Amino acid sequence: MKKSNPASALDDRIAPLEMGADEFRRVGHALIDQIATFLQSLPARPVTPGDARPIVRNRLGDRTLPQRGCPAEALLPETAELLFDNSLFNGHPRFFGYITSSAAPVGALGELLAAAVNPNVAAWALSPMASEIEKQTIQWIAELLGYPHDCGGLLVSGGNMANFVGFLAARRSRLSNDVRQKGIQSLEKPPRLYTSKATHTWVQKAVDMFGLGQDAVRWIETNDRQQMNSTLLEQAIVNDLANGAQPFMVVGTAGSVGVGAIDPLNEIADICQRHDLWFHVDGAYGAPAAALPEAADDLKALSRADSVAVDPHKWLYNPIEAGCTLVRDRRLLIDAFSFNPEYYSFDVGDDTEMINYYELGPQNTRGFRALKVWLALNVAGRDGYIRMIRDDIALARALFDRVQQSTVLRALTQSLSITTFHFVPEDLSTEDADTVRYLNELNRELMNRLQAGGEAYVSNAVVGNYYALRCCVVNFRSTLHDMHLLADIVEKLGREVDKEIRPRALQPADG
Ligand SMILES: *Cc1c(COP(=O)(O)O)cnc(C)c1O
Question: Is the pTM for the entire model greater than 0.90?
């Protein structure tokens, strides 16, 4: 057996992971310099490393775990370069692919500071100031959205989790506490949840994970703008009630993930009121736009919801990860999540202002996500956020206008900051099935090449029968020039791809 350290060595122990103040300063300053240079270079870099998949895969080699460590001073600059050279940059001014924003640089500094102090925001006693900052962050997000600022809420990892928390609050509140004790099988009537066909897949995951099963979801049809049909919603509820089921929750969407559609939230709120159902709004993407004075009434109606999910790592421009759930009645989160284990004695007594966040959500140990969100809200202020969100919407509309003027592009949808369109060669205006099939193939290939090319990045949506290019502007770095450049690039690339693949695609197959 190996001898352990003699007592003297433990006296002046220097652990392999310790860093002295001087080393930390040196390595840290160098890293910050490197990051500053990287951020400055973003516009000149390709959005993606392009067609280099095998190269990226092999970059790390198949080294086994190193036996001996190496100094951080050498490791960090190399690691930074490895990431700068082999990443997709959602912070690039021409990244429009998904609803993933450019990350506010102050958020990166916030992550560093949060990790350095490392509070465990599970309990107030473990994170006094961090808990207070999270509480204020929740209040400020609610104020920004026009939601009651005395609501409850917490930060979670993202939109899916934020929606799960709203879902569980609804389940507890509308299906009784028996569900927590005896499970779903104790319900006399099968529970039913209503949402539109344009809703994000979190709904499927939620009914799966939390024991209701897919059959619990009533998928309500949408109109041609992908907004929920509220007449069909109420019919479905009435039908289920007549057939002995138990409606408990309606999920409305404020900014659908596909085309940015906003459901008729006012009508949905009325229906929920009439039938005493929980009204949850998935505002993961669109909720921050409710801050604009000129926002549509239906978007502002998210203020009527029992719970709202919003994603600070989307339209509040925070680094990933940050999701947030707001719940109108703050006690309901405790009802849904609180247990009092013996190993935790963080009794807050009558001090209702002292929050132990582990009692409000699924996580136990919790990081200090709130710091980056709070810092960004402080740095930009309400006015700054209104300006950034308004500009993003204006840029998406400018792209729509530019596309409408093109002879080879056709605009399809525009809502919030998402514009969809497709490439249609001048001589292919007919709409027979073969042509539509070809157009879709052409646009799919066009999108793939665009994504690999690295000049600009968009994703796709399905709009009616069409495969559409989808441009999401959640990006405070984008300018009007970038929108015009995107259209120019798509026009040019579209012509090239059409020329190349049409002879193959539209010719009758021989043999
Ligand atoms: C992005 C999104 C989600 C999921 O959020 P994540 O942060 O990716 O977990 C849910 N709903 C909508 C409408 C979204 O846009």
Answer: yes
